[in-house]
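Issue: ligand-bound run for zinc ion - logging full I/O for the record.

Environment: standard queue, default settings, no custom constraints.

Inputs:
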Amino acid sequence: MKAAVLYGENDLRYQEVETPHALPGEVVIEVKACGICTTDVKILSGESTPRNLPTILGHEVAGLVHEVGAGVKELTTGQRVAVYPIASCGECFFCRRGRHSLCLHEFGLAHGADGGFAEYVRIPKTLVDLGGILPIKNSLSMELAAMTEPLSCCLSAFRSAGVAKGDWIAIIGAGPMGLLHLLTAEAQGARTIVIDVIPERLDKARELGAEKVIDAGKTDPVQAVRSITEIGADLVIAALGSTEVMEKYLPMVRNAGVFNIFGGAPKGSRLTIDPRWLHYGEIILTGTFGSSLPDFKQALRLISTGKAPVEKIISHRVSLDKLLDAVQQTREHNLLKAVVLI
Ligand SMILES: [Zn+2]
Ligand SMILES: [Zn+2]
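Outputs:
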């Protein structure tokens, strides 16, 4: 089969590799769509390290069940599916508390096992047993199904913050994840403020229904958020990797509110925090990454029912051999969200 194999920093080779086969308990999926995630961009730029090399990236997978290993009962070949990428054990301390992304034995697609930037992907038994392969409706396109994983990460952030209807959510960064947070907030009846410095991204946020948008190049966003919300935002999502920006924007959150460092910052970066602010404000400073299987199922429901119009986030569709080019374009902010169609 054809695959985009990662050998190291900026070294991605579109090449012929052996087609995987399903061992007992495993399933092979014929990949139809696989989203390009910021994580993939970071790994390719050398900002983040993959677990093993060479490897195949891509964890936002939708496709057709191609081969079902012995003992797998619920799935049949030809079925249209979306795939939850984290093969968590289901039994450890964290899994028992529903914190699948923190599983002690966690591995997954593009993270120990080969991912979806290939014609076929083998789904490990642990992930099949977990129920991570979810059938999708015929009416749902593969590219939309591939958006389930990134949306589920936003739902995870909202769940952990305990967002309620009418809450003010301040989203810093109107990139693909920031905009998916915006759709998540809207689906949950929360009120939204989106902050960025790129006018086109702010226009996009407005078009997607953001209640307020703030151009951080023109207005002081902390003051603006505090004046809109009167006491500060209930939840602040830092959907970017700049610790300088995060640090400056910490006071956007209200007392007893949640500040979520959602974007991965570069290795070695540091944040300076006034402990008095944390203590007397009873601020919850946290982070989330990945999602749990229930978040993934909820994301699929929101997409299938049109409650999260994720099609508005997809800006480019590319073929597998153009993956590196699409990553480069993403890095330079020339495109918002690309999905590889195979
Ligand atoms: Zn992702
Ligand atoms: Zn576990």
